[in-house]
Structure formats: structure tokens, C-alpha cells
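BUG: 3D viewer hangs when loading the predicted structure for this chain

Environment: internal workstation, default settings.
Expected: structure renders.
Actual: progress bar stalls at 90%.

Input used:
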Amino acid sequence: MAEGFVREQSSLDGSRSMDTLVLECPICLEQLRHPKSLPCLHSFCEECLGSYITKELSGKMASSFSCPVCRKVTEPMNPSEDKESWAGQFPTNNLAVEMIRHLQNMNTLITCKPCEKKGNTNVPAKFWCHQIKSYFCATCKIDHHDLIHEECEPENITEWNKSDTIRRQTSAAGCGKHKEKLEYYCEDHQILGCNKCIIVDHRKCEVVTSVDDFRDKLTPSKFDNLLDDLRKSTDAMETLINDVAEQLQSMTNDQDIALQSLTDLRRKINERFDTIQKELTDKLMASFKEEKENLDISKLKCERLMLSMQNTLTSSKNAALKDDSVGTICLFQRGHAEVESCKELIKELEKSSRSTSLRHEYDPDILAVNTKTSLTMGKIVVHQQQRRLPSTAFSTLLSERLMKITGNLNIKVPSDKEDCSAYGVVLMSDGRIVVGDYANNKVKLFTENGEFHCEVGLSDSPCDLCRIDDNTVAVMLVTVKTICVVAVEDLTLTISSEILIPNITEVCLGVTYNNTNFVVGTTSSLYSVPKDGGEATKLHAIKSKCLHLASNQYNGCLFASLYESTPNKVAVTRLSGKSIRDVLKVGTVKGTAGIDIDREGNLYVCGAVSNNVIQMSEDGTNVRELLTSSDGIKLPRAISVCGDKVVITSDSSDQQNCIDVFQLI
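C-alpha cells produced before the viewer hung:
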């Protein structure tokens, strides 16, 4: 019956002989090399099995593994050894070794031995006599073998019976451990063994029989049941294989669709980015064109006036040589008009002149790996600020001008629940006024004529304000220690970002911007804060609270106003690079509050206790009072200068809802 079972197996696949099926490694699908058998009787190349075990148990603490074929849990003979050596511990499949050896021999030409003795060495053998261990061709089998061994039936060694022949020739192969004949079967462990195996490993087992006795127990019905189960199992595996193949095909289709989708998306992104690039390019070129036209117009005005005045000068020399009274008078009048036009043009340019920078800004994190930043092409930033004109013969220095009040604006609006506390103010280059209202937690926008445009609510009380550029201001929120960046549009205010300062513990009061970063003043220190946010760096310790700060955009000097009323205490400190210098002490000014700087580098300082406003040079050597209490100044708090215009807020209860506007004349 066992032989019948082998024949059934060999017929499972007509295209592959039994020797190929039995001697193939299930892992590498090639002929077994150094075959090792697991207790479940599945055999593998030693190298393949070792690699499988190492990979299966990589990073795991385990004393067993599962068979690559049947998944039966298998324990090595010595789990304490390295996993790389477990495969070598299992017995060698000597049957497979012998079958491979015989198969290799049978793949060569096997000749008939009687014919060889006759001198004919190329006659193929077709039969093998196991008794006399000799090969015969069909003729010699009849003429020689059958005459001598009438009761012996030699084996047919044609290709059809090759596998059965090999198995019978190797059936007496020894045990993998002891090289002895396999004669026993342990039913407790379901394993074949030699005499030594039984004595050493299975002497305590309950059912150990000889291989012949156990074979007799394998009744035809058991084999029929097993064959039926194998067929069902084969069908189940075929179903699962087909299912896996369908899944693989589905994944392959999904991959193709996803790859095409990626290609399509990349094309659409490229098209979108082409559009965005064109929009940004158009904005950049339009901004450049607008500013260029303004500069060209200013240049043309100056060139025309200069050419006209040069002609007047030349004509004046000729007029002195001629007796032409009318012509001389006309020439004088024209020259006088040109000089007046020159003065007016200089004043006009002083008010309107500004420096403009155009740059493309983007977040560099978009180029980083594993970034969460949205993929954009950034933005075109137009940065404008008041520009200091070079001195001319007709320029009147701001340090020599007087201050004249030109307006008084009401900043209290219907939505305010409290009277205003204008602790911060910024005068924009186009005359708009941005006010920080501490009492109502707001920032408000007004025209220079006092027309209210809009307001935006804040999460905390605002203190100092500073100008970033012609379209942006920064607001210092006191207790939450946050710099609120506000975009100033034509008629609206919009909070564009909030910069939290994580490592400052004191109350934050003053703020200024110096092109690369913010500087924040607290009750005891001055800090530098990155313009895009981050931890603050301490610059300087101060002995009085810093209510306001100012920055010279031309030379980078910073000025801190320290609220102090004690005579000879520091009122204003200057920071230039790493150099720190006290430039004003309490005297003329007491209770130092608002501070700002004009385009010529003159400082304007409010004395909240002394009820005055002074103007002084950056080094503190030239100081003069511009406004005093006799001019109606009471508790001045914040000040902002732009060109020849100045706005001042007050802490006085009867003036706190108003802002005074002044002109330097």
C-alpha cells in the first residue's frame, strides 16, 4: 500500500518527475544542498533554513520557530546556541542525499555490463539487478540474467520508473544522527529512528514499533482518507493561491492607476505652479514698474528744473552785458520763480521720498524632507520706508525746526466700553494713524484728518507699537508676552501672525523692529526676538522698566526709554552692536515714556512727569525742548514721527481720548 501511495504522489504532476518534487527546497525552489530535515519531515537547504530562522526571529527573544511549509512550531536541539547555528543542529536527510547522488548517476549514460565485457561500451542499460548489482540491456536480460536468476525480477530504470528505482535503492539509508538503518517508528513523537535513537531518545515512550509493523497499521482506508484530505488541502491551497494572485493583480492595477495619478497630479501641479509663478512675476514687475515710474517722474522734475535754472544762469551772464531793462526784470522774475520751485520740490520730495526694496520670500522648510509646511511659492514682499534725502542748500534740518499743532483727533469710537488708553501709536508714511488702545484691547486705524476706518480686537492689552514697513506694524501684548503683527491695508487691519516669546517671564512693554529681528523691553531687561519667532536672547539688564523702544533703520542703533524720575538716573540707553551707552539722564525730562527717531537721526522723547517733549541727537549732546506744558502738553505717553509730522498721545484723564498732530516747520 505504501508503494501505491508513492505512485499516487508521482502522478500528481505529469510534467514533473517524483525526484524533482522530493528533492526541491521549498525556499529557494532549487535542488537541495546539504538537506536538513525538521521533525515534520520537511527538508530544506541548510543555508536556506538558517537564513529563514534568522529573518523570522530577527529582534525577537524566542526558543522556537515555525516550519516554512506547514507552520508547525519547531524547537532546535539546543536553543541556547545562536539562532544562526540552529539549522545545523537538525539531522541531515540522508535519503535525499542518496537520491541526489543516484539521480546524478542516472543522468549519465548507464551501459549494459555484459555488453561492456564484449567490448561494446555504448549499449544503454534498461534494467538493474539488485541481487547481483549489475545493469543489463533488454537483450542481455533475456540471454544472461533470466537464465541464471529465474526467480529474480530486475528493476526497469527507464525515465518512467526512475524515481521509484532511486527510492528503493536508497530505502536502506541510515539515520541522520547515527548513520544506522531506520528500523523503528515512535508513535508518541511520530518520528522514524534507528536503534540508538530509540534507546537514547525514546526509551520512555509508550508506543514504539518496527517500521514494518507500523506500515501494516497503515490500512488502505487510512491512505484513502489521507489522499482525500490531501486533495482537499491541495484544492484549498489552490483557491488561496488564486485569491492571492487576484489580490496581487488588483494591487498591480492599483499601482498602475496610482502611478498614472501621480504623473497626472505632477502635471497639474506644474501647471498650477506655472500660473502662480506668472502671478508672482506679474506682481513683482508691476511693483517695480510703479516705483520706477515714481522715481523717473521725480528725476524728470529735478532734471527739467535744473536745466531751466542752468539756462537762467547762462542768460543772466549775457543780460549783464546788454542794456535791456525789461529782459533783465523778466530774467530776475523767472529765476526767482525757479528758486521757489526748487524749494517746494525739495519739500515735496522730503515728504514723499521713500526707499523701496523688492524681494521674493518663501519658507525654506518647503525644501526639507519630512516637512509639514504647505508647498507654496512664497510671496513678493514690497518693503518701503521713509528715505533720508541728501542735504542741500535749501534743506531745513529737522533739528532746527519748530513744532506747530495742526490737529486734534478723537480716537474713542462707539464700540469702546472704556475711555481710551493710547499706550502705542504709529504714524504711517501716507498719513494714516494706527493706535493701540490698552483699555479696550484694540488696535484702531484713522486717517490724518481723524476719520475712523476700522479696528481689530486683541487677545490681551497692547502697550508699545512699532512700524515694520509702510504696510505693517507690530503690537506688544503685555501679559501673554506675544508680538502681534498687523497688516495695515487701505481700509482694514488684519492680524497676520502672532509671535509668542516662550522664555520671557517678565511683563513685556516696549517693542521695536530693526530689519532683522524685534527688540523687546520688559521691567528689567532688553531682549532680541527672531522675526519669525523663537526664544529670546537677553541683550542688556536695565534698572527701570522700559515702556518704549525706537530703532534707527539707517545705522541699526536701538534706543530704550526707561521710566525714571529720580535725578541723574538713566532715562535713555543706546545699544549699537555690542556697545551700550547711556545717552540721557533724568533732568529736563522726567518719567521718560514715548520715544521715536526721525529720518535725520534726531530722537524725540516724551516726559510724562515733566509734561514736555524734547528733541536730541543720538549721542545726547544736543537737547532742546520742543513742547512744554505751556503748549498744552499733559502726561505725554506715546510719540511717532514720520517726515515732518508728529503724533502724540496722552495719559491725562481729560486728553486720553485724543491724539495731537504736529508739524515741524
